[in-house]
Amino acid sequence: MFSKGELVRWYEMYVDLMIVRNTGLGVIRSSYKYEHSDWSTIIYEVYRPTLQDTISLEECFIEKI
Fold first, then answer.
1. Can you name the residues that pair with 54 across neighbouring β-strands?
2. Nearest 5°: CA angle at 15, between 52 and 1?
3. Angle, alpha carbons 64-37-62 (nearest 5°)
4. 21 vs 1, 36, 42, 48, CA distance in Å?
5. Is the overall model pTM greater than 0.90, yes or no?
6. Residue pLDDT, tens place only, 4-51
């Protein structure tokens, strides 16, 4: 689990392939739990300073620095 303000490495994947499209450093802005039927995951909002935007990513596409 990541905390707000934590520095992380993020991975953006191609939709139909498990190939990394882009990667970089970012800061966790917020998180929320997404639930559907019997499945759930945590979604993180990550600010990417080099791209000056925010992206929503599942926990599996983020790692601690």
1. 47
2. 60
3. 10
4. 24, 27, 21, 15
5. no
6. 999 999 999 998 888 999 999 999 999 999 999 999 999 999 999 999
pLDDT on residue 18: 84
Contacts 24+ apart (CB under 8 A), 54-59: 54/29, 55/10, 55/12, 55/26, 57/10, 57/11, 57/12, 59/1, 59/2
Counted residue by residue, the chain has a size of 65
Separation between Cα atoms, residue 30 and residue 46, nearest integer Å: 8
- At residue 5, the pLDDT reads 96
